[in-house]
Design a protein that fits this description.
The complex is a heterotrimer of chains A (268), B (160) and C (282). Helices cover 69% and strands 3% of the residues of chain A. By secondary structure, chain A is mainly α. Chain B has one domain. In chain B, helix 2 packs antiparallel against helix 3, helix 3 packs antiparallel against helix 5 and helix 5 packs antiparallel against helix 6. The longest helix of chain B has 34 residues. Chain C is an alpha/beta fold. In chain C, strands 6-7-8-3-9-10 form a six-stranded mixed sheet, sandwiched between helices. The chains are: A mainly alpha (268), B mainly alpha (160), C alpha/beta (282). Chains in contact: A-B, A-C, B-C.
Chain lengths: 268, 160, 282
């Protein structure tokens, strides 16, 4: 099952302007972009979105080939969706292939959906391409910190996210080791119907859970031993600060979003 | 003493999140899309045993989706669905049979509608909801409930 | 059982950008009834190699042949042979999962298809081989045992399958000196009683010098040295280059020789060293 093959996230290392932006800027930017895609109601809007996204991708210097790899898992969905929308939508027929007719509305609808989907996927995957998961978590913590007022423990949440991320490879390793040890004792994880396989997972899941909670207990104790007291008064080694670059990014975002809204309203 | 208990809660949550994310990524081919059987959703049963599973599972789902094909949108919406489901499970923790209904319903509705309206899956909203619901049902009742029974017996050994 | 490894090559993530050649053209033979030691720096491919020996991994090139049959084949004969090769991983106690010791040790035989009575008989016998009294331990929870006891139960779990070959990956990891000695004595005892072929993966040169009749040395996926402990441990320079050390007794003799003492350095154990010292210094 090649557990070693699973690469965590798709962070593409770099020093571009986009990489260097504050993670909060990137998170908010992604939000704004995704929302904008749902405000668009005609192709002109998508053109603006595509230009904007293209510019950001170019600025990030992430190779297009790398980004296209991210589309592969959904390629099937895109093709399927296109075909379905093409043939199923009723309206003015353009041409016929036997009993199936391709309508004007179908072409419009299919292209609209597909373009939006592609822009959505590229846009949201860009976030994880230019931001390390741990930086992302820090950004989320800072963004949520105003919520401390309504008793949302932003620090603890971010700490939990950081720890969760850090232990994914460790637990995957544990799973691999346990699976191998049990297979060496004749366990079979592959054959049998759904119920048999579920039962067969006990020799894997019980030791896995034991390991996981043992790691948790050890970690909690280690944090305790280092006088961890939660978020109160806690400072960080690498401060997070907005720079001129972020101000520029916000300006660009504002212009972009403004134009999307404008195009929408003007054509209402 | 108070601090240990507090740290333990969050660390437990973190580890449950890692389990969820790890399992989802490991079984990536069946973890995403309309025809998903997300085996890791069976882990929602942990919310019967510890409230730490509520933020934990949501975090795990967040990362699993973030690193998957759906990206950020899927991460936010999907983790919301898992969060609501886990909250429901915790509320219904007295009955194992009923406890896993909330995740099936929450995921079916929220993920189903997300697939239809955000990711433009060319099936009707009802179809999306039903397909996702089916996958959830298999994960939660095919694996989750039996797992819950085992955990009930062995929770001392496991450290829950 | 005789195991021949021929030109074994294994590549992780083949075809992808992070392709790693874990094993390259490894060939050697384990004679029936022998005790071989496998040593090598971390990352040299030891873990990957042993996983091939019982069929957990399939070679990209080359083969592992047990008693004349390629164990990677999909035949019943190959399957039967794979079942006779036991593998004890590092920290094997992490694989324990059952409610009672007896049930856990029975897991292996059960998977092999034996009846409940046969499983229990094998399990109890295996427990006695590892020095745990069957009647005392059978109904206890494996999770309530001490670390040393847990490890023994895990090893019993593999022994209950009655393998002809036993491969142990650092069976003494994490144990105190007494536990370390106990486990190795146990391995020797078991080998004697069942006439097994043993392959011991270890970082401990003293153990290799004392117990093995054959040593295999790995570096970066290749088998770079092979021979008796006497032959291997006479090559201090080469071992040093590979990041490996000598048995303590041998090291001591070499240092004494450097200082001008007329001692023989082909010494492997403390007993031999003592002999030398007494001979030279009276």
């Amino acid at each position: 099952m090649a557990i070693k093959d699973i690469t965590l996230g798709q962070y593409f290392p770099g020093e571009s302007a986009v990489h260097r932006l504050d993670p909060r800027t990137k998170i908010l930017g992604t939000f704004v972009f995704i929302i904008s895609l749902f405000i668009v109601n005609r192709f002109a809007g998508f053109a603006i979105a595509a230009v904007f996204l293209g510019a950001v991708i170019a600025a990030s210097r992430v190779p297009l080939k790398f980004m296209l790899k991210g589309l592969r898992p959904i390629l099937f969905l895109i093709v399927f969706s296109t075909l379905l929308n093409l043939f199923v939508t009723t309206g003015t027929p353009i041409f016929q292939i036997g009993p199936l007719s391709v309508t004007e509305e179908g072409v419009y609808r299919a292209s609209f959906m597909v373009i939006r989907l592609i822009l959505l996927i590229f846009g949201s995957s860009l976030l994880t391409l230019v931001t390390k998961p741990i930086t992302l978590t820090d950004g989320i913590e800072r963004l949520l910190s105003p919520m401390n007022i309504v008793k949302l423990p932003s620090h603890e949440l971010a700490m939990m996210m950081t720890i969760a991320l850090r232990f994914i490879p460790t637990l995957l390793d544990e799973t691999d080791k346990i699976m191998k040890a049990q297979t060496a004792r004749g366990a079979d994880f592959e054959s049998g119907n759904l119920f048999r396989r579920a039962k067969g997972l006990i020799p894997l899941l019980v030791p896995l859970f034991v390991s996981a909670f043992r790691i948790a207990a050890d970690l909690a104790m280690a944090m305790e031993a280092r006088c961890y007291r939660g978020g109160k008064g806690r400072t960080r080694m690498n401060g997070m600060a907005f720079t001129g670059l972020d101000a520029l990014a916000f300006l660009v975002l504002a212009v972009y979003f403004g134009s999307i809204v404008y195009v929408r309203l003007v054509t209402a | 003493m108070k601090n240990t208990i507090k740290s333990q809660y969050w660390v437990h949550a973190a580890v449950i999140g890692s389990l969820y994310a790890g399992l989802t990524l490991l079984l990536a081919p069946i973890s995403y899309g309309v025809m998903q059987v997300r085996v890791s959703e069976a882990l929602t049963v942990l919310a019967v045993f510890t409230p730490a599973a509520i933020p934990g599972l949501a975090t795990g789902c967040f990362f699993a989706n973030l690193l998957g094909p759906g990206g950020f949108g899927d991460a936010v919406i999907g983790s919301a669905a898992t969060l609501i489901g886990a909250l429901g499970t915790y509320r219904l923790r007295n009955s194992l049979g009923r406890a896993l209904v909330p995740p099936v319903v929450a995921n079916a509705l929220i993920i189903g509608l997300m697939l239809r309206y955000v990711y433009s899956v060319p099936l009707s909203a009802i179809a999306c909801i039903l397909w996702v619901g089916l996958g959830e049902l298999i994960a939660c009742y095919g694996l989750g409930v039996p797992l819950g029974r085992v955990l009930q017996k062995r929770k001392g050994d496991i450290g829950l | 059982m005789r195991i021949e490894v021929k030109g074994l090559t294994h590549i992780y993530s083949e075809g992808m950008p992070f392709e790693t050649v874990a094993l390259e053209d490894v060939s050697f033979t384990l004679q029936p009834g022998s005790f071989a030691g496998l040593i090598g720096h971390t990352g040299s491919g030891k873990s990957t190699l042993i996983q091939h020996l019982n069929g957990l991994l399939r070679p990209v090139e080359g083969a592992v042949i047990a008693d004349g049959v390629d164990i990677a084949e999909k035949s019943d004969a190959a399957r039967a042979l794979r079942r006779r090769i036991g593998l004890v991983f590092q920290y094997p106690e992490y694989q324990l999962f059952e409610e009672t010791v007896l049930r856990d040790v029975c897991f292996g035989p059960k998977n092999l298809g034996f009846s409940q009575e046969e499983c229990e008989a094998r399990a109890l016998h295996a427990l006695s081989l590892v020095g745990l009294d069957g009647e005392t331990f059978r109904d206890r929870s494996p999770f309530g045992l001490s670390g040393g006891e847990k490890r023994r139960v895990a090893i019993a779990g593999v022994l209950a399958m009655e393998p002809d070959v036993l491969i142990l990956d650092e069976p003494t990891a994490g144990l105190d000196p007494a536990g370390h000695r106990a486990v190795l004595d146990m391995v020797q005892e078991i080998k004697r009683e069942r006439d097994l072929t043993i392959l011991l993966v270890t970082h401990n040169m003293d153990d290799v010098a004392r117990l093995a009749d054959r040593v295999l040395v790995m570096e970066k996926g290749r088998l770079v040295m092979e021979g008796t402990p006497g032959e291997i441990f006479s090559k201090e320079q080469e071992l040093h280059r590979l990041g490996l050390s000598l048995p303590q007794a041998t090291r001591l003799m070499k240092r004494l020789e450097e200082k001008g003492c007329p001692v023989q350095t082909d010494v492997l154990t403390f007993e031999e060293a003592e002999e030398q010292i007494v001979k030279v210094f009276g």
